[in-house]
Fold this protein.
Amino acid sequence: MLGNRVLLVEDDNDTREITALLLDHAGYEVIVAPDLASGIAISREQPDITVVMADMYLDCGQTGISLIRTLRDNGLHMPIVLTSAHNEASIAARDLNVAFLPKPYGRQALLSVMALASAGTRESNLPQASEASSFASDGYRHCTQTQLRGQLDMPGAPDEVMNRNPTLTGVIQ
């Protein structure tokens, strides 16, 4: 998995933290950005990013769509995974020819989509909104915090991260 650098643009601290942990544990190098401006700056400073994963709705009216358009305007065409708990984001993902991963997502769904993207799969061949439901269901949706810690080998994972965020309730129960 060496060489797979993921730029994760997510405004929610808890979602950003747990997603980064899952990806890091799977062998990805994760660079996090809490907002649109940071995501754009990082993409310009670090051209060896292989996959971008962005939330559809960021703070202050910013969107993952703006990020995607800016990246493309800057000549960057790496695979992109758009995430959201809102169904209309799947339409935007389809229109932009990027993968869509509905929230809440589990570990297996996340890693399946990221594996396809990081393998160099062209954007047009990544799972689209119509296929997203097949990626959204996996065994991690019903595991306990203790089971998840065991799966991730993370004995110190903070309970507050796993309990605070409603987006994560589908992943960790």
In short: Strands lie at 5-9, 29-33, 51-55, 80-84, 99-102. The chain has eight helices and five strands.
